[in-house]
Amino acid sequence: MAKSPMDTLQLSYIQIAIAFLLFAQAKSTTEHTSTPQPNDTNTACIASERSALLAFRAGLSDPANLLSSWKGDDCCGWKGVYCSNRTGHVVKLDLQGSGYTIDSDSRKVLAGNISSSLLGLQHLRYLDLSFNEFDKMQIPEFIGSLHKLRYLDLSMSMFIGRIPPQLGNLSNLQYLDLRSSYQDRDIHDGTYSTDIMWLSRLTSLEHLDMTYVDLSAIVHWLPVVNMLPTLKFLFLTSCQLRTSPESLQLSNLTSLETLFLVGNQFHQRSTPNWFWDLTSLKYLDISYNGFYGPFPDEIGNMTSMVELHLSANSLVGMMPSNMKNLCNLEVLYSYTSNINGSITELLHR
Ligand SMILES: *[C@@H]1O[C@H](CO)[C@@H](O)[C@H](O)[C@H]1NC(C)=O
Ligand SMILES: *[C@@H]1O[C@H](CO)[C@@H](O)[C@H](O)[C@H]1NC(C)=O
Ligand SMILES: *[C@@H]1O[C@H](CO)[C@@H](O)[C@H](O)[C@H]1NC(C)=O
Ligand SMILES: *[C@@H]1O[C@H](CO)[C@@H](O)[C@H](O)[C@H]1NC(C)=O
Ligand SMILES: *[C@@H]1O[C@H](CO)[C@@H](O)[C@H](O)[C@H]1NC(C)=O
Ligand SMILES: *[C@@H]1O[C@H](CO)[C@@H](O)[C@H](O)[C@H]1NC(C)=O
Ligand SMILES: *[C@@H]1O[C@H](CO)[C@@H](O)[C@H](O)[C@H]1NC(C)=O
């Protein structure tokens, strides 16, 4: 018997309803696993993960008693520990220290050793150990084996030595912050990398901060960065970079919005330069680099620009008239440059 049009109609309604249900379920699943909520703790803690956390804690020194809640069975309720309420696995560990404050007695930081027992948390997607005091310790290589990580923040925690290339195994990583904390001391006391090929494997990366990491041994850094097509935020401030290529033949960096190249040692003409072709840029800071030459005409093409920092270079001459194309520009810093001419004309432009 042939189906009546009405039956067909009902059938497709049901199919649509089912599709919606499946979609809604898939959506809530991904939301819960990718951004665990602090209240997602109504699942019992997995015993092997509790042991891993306790072994990790045993290696730490915790003078401010930050981890006093780390007792009892329900590790999903411990400070800084977040479990998926779907699977019960620990998916997020947020142990950010309090950083530097004026009242140094009240600093709340962790120190000591980072135990490889962390590897017991194989479902970890988010790890933040920033602003602690792992003084004179290297970033552990085993972190590269937490292969589900999407978010990794190891910044400002007084790590020293080579950045382990094993981090290149974290192919799901979207956010990587390796800011080094030794900015006031000799940079060689902080972290360094002599070969950044490992970075090119992080093809989902959107945010990369290597501020104060010593990259002075690396000449061809740009082709590596150019392998990261999803990059939106790139911070390479005070990395002792010496080369900034004049152009990038095939730019992958079409999503890049924020580029900080402050305080490197380029000492070359400001133009031509690869970053003037990145017309998607909204924030560009190339201060303190020894760039010289006339104020670059290319600026007129960067119509998305919101903030432009050019200070403390040796740019000369008048701002180009095409700067009037930069309708979104809100901030222009250009102190200690040799821009001459009339201030009225400059403001007009
Ligand atoms: C958890 O939920 C309760 C009640 O909904 C709320 O009062 C509390 O602030 C939440 N805790 C966190 C850490 O979000
Ligand atoms: C997970 O927790 C959230 C927020 O507490 C809740 O809305 C959701 O229904 C829970 N999901 C499951 C599968 O228990
Ligand atoms: C960290 O490891 C070193 C060397 O194994 C050891 O001497 C030190 O006591 C450990 N620190 C803590 C807090 O366990
Ligand atoms: C991780 O990376 C290192 C160095 O890049 C490599 O030798 C090793 O085989 C990788 N391990 C895995 C499991 O992929
Ligand atoms: C652009 O990125 C992809 C993915 O990393 C890479 O395979 C490709 O070689 C890159 N293109 C260039 C010109 O570097
Ligand atoms: C601006 O962009 C156009 C089109 O891409 C190009 O032809 C021109 O040379 C650029 N101007 C400057 C000053 O770079
Ligand atoms: C501004 O500086 C340029 C380059 O040094 C020079 O050629 C020009 O005459 C100067 N203009 C004014 C108005 O001082």
UniProtKB/TrEMBL annotation:
The organism is Triticum urartu
A single GO CC term for this protein reads: membrane
What's the chief localization of this chain?
Answer: membrane
- Which range is the signal sequence, renumbered to this chain? 1-26
The segment(s) forming the Leucine-rich repeat-containing N-terminal plant-type domain are 47-84
Q: Does the keyword Transmembrane apply?
A: yes
Sorted alphabetically, which SUPFAM superfamilies does this protein's record hold? L domain-like
> Does Membrane appear among the keywords?
yes
Query: Where does the UniProt annotation locate this protein?
Result: Membrane
Coiled coil located at which positions? none
| Record-given protein name | Leucine-rich repeat-containing N-terminal plant-type domain-containing protein
Q: How does the protein's chain sit in the membrane according to the entry? A: Single-pass type I membrane protein
Report the Pfam families cross-referenced here: LRR_1, LRRNT_2
UniProt keyword annotations, A-Z:
Glycoprotein, Leucine-rich repeat, Membrane, Repeat, Signal, Transmembrane, Transmembrane helix
